Amino acid sequence: MSNLHPVLQRVTDRIIERSKGSRGRYLSLMDREAERQPDRGSLSCSNLAHGFAAAEEDKAAIAAGRGPNLAIVTAYNDMLSAHQPYGRYPERMKIWAREVGATAQVAGGVPAMCDGVTQGQDGMELSLFSRDVIALSTAVAMSHAMFDGMALLGICDKIVPGLLIGALRFGHLPCVFVPSGPMPSGIANKEKQRVRQLYAEGKADRAMLLESESRSYHSPGTCTFYGTANSNQMMMEMMGLHVPGAAFVPPGAKLRQELSRTAVHRLAKLAGDPSRTLAKCVDEKAIVNAAVGLLATGGSTNHAIHIPAMARAAGIVIDWDDLSELSHVVPLLARVYPNGSGDVNAFHDAGGMGYVIRELLGAGLAHEDILTVGAASLAAYGEEPFMDDETLAWRNSGDSRDDTMLRPVAAPFQPDGGMRLVEGNLGRACFKTSAVDAERWTIEAPCRVFETQHAVAEAFAKGELDRDVVVVVRFQGPRANGMPELHKLTPPLGVLQDRGYRVALVTDGRMSGASGKVPAAIHCSPEAHGGGPLAKLRDGDMVRLCATDGTLSTDADLDAREPATFTEDETGMGRELFAMFRRFADEAEKGGSAMLAEAGL
Q: Which class is domain 419-568?
């Protein structure tokens, strides 16, 4: 693109140069896989008979190789509201495949845990590593050499990254993600936040809190706040791995069904086309587009971990310096709760992803010339889908229909993307500025050190934190306990801030898209477990956190101290089964993955 922003070009060129060796090895592997992977015709009769034994009416077509056979890899379960609609998808997708002379089979299922259920519980310590398990499960599903393309059914936090990481090892095939859409909006987000803070202060009981939460999370579909799940859907649009505009159309709508049907038809058409395989679609430009979309929409901080991990699976190396440099030039175009008052439904109604992509392309802030599964280039993703009578069509969404939700590049909510790198003698960390008032971007105060979020809650209840304070929660990294999200910190820290105190959080754990209004340095690397600098902090040490100049430091003499040791017993709730993942996980900036580290990726 001739109008590409020079910083976007520079960062992309740097990633391409840095990735030459690893990207070259990956593409060579995919070329070899394309040459040596047996098609169904070369399987032994016994192999093939096993593969279509239960295919019923599709058996003859698969046996004769009359058309492409599509793999459905599904993360269905009916505990996750976002994934409950997937229950009926396979039977419909088989019908849609037959419409274009193809067949489809459920190749396998992957686990899909709900971070909303496990927040603050022991099970949350399995969450990040579930991404590795999902990637491994995707590989198992695709290992049968029965398929000509991949349809991936997943939405939520670790599930989309895990599916993509696994699918990229079969990148010689085409691939499409098939979302199912968000649930209808519930109670106003400010009301939900108000009740949570009342509960934290002891001014609301459990029944009142449960009633509030149940009115917010209330039906099938993705939770409507802009956390990791909805950020996943945004990124799949920015990378061109959806049918254009599929991200935020609600379940049950005729438009949703037609988008899913079109995804199957498109995948069948791509099968056998070596020019538009997943390996070729997910290149350096697509990864940069994902990062740009994250910044432009104020998406989940979890993707500072997931983007490097997904990129590694494609032989691409991106780091937090790249994200921070992009953040300085990519403006914030959307304010979606918790960064604003409206949810993803309001965002979609205001113009949604079509508007965002059109604005970014117009300003030279995204790569138009990427290979997509749904169209000739990313330009087609700058339109919105609609039903023209009974026909799926796309149109220009026009100007923003709500400037409290969406604004143009020429008049953004803020001039940068709201995710900054902070670093110093306490390590490197991410600071999400998009939800934090600029007057709170710099906090300097004595620290109080904790090793669990529950201990923070106890200290808050006793009034021990009623002062200016930097709350440090350490031993929350991948190697210590699987890097759980620390959502239980948000209400008490928010209350302290509302009381007029200067408050910040520093942690080697995660906060995700719900990090909220309190300034926070998260994903601190190196983590405390193993001797990282957070392990040497003591109560009362002065800590400075500043998003403006990118500082995360203390004036304490850390070199003169021995690090504290991690002693928590990681047993129960299946955590002992994940000891291998904790032992071999690499740092957050590389993706926090044991699987990728041990695979040498």
A: alpha beta
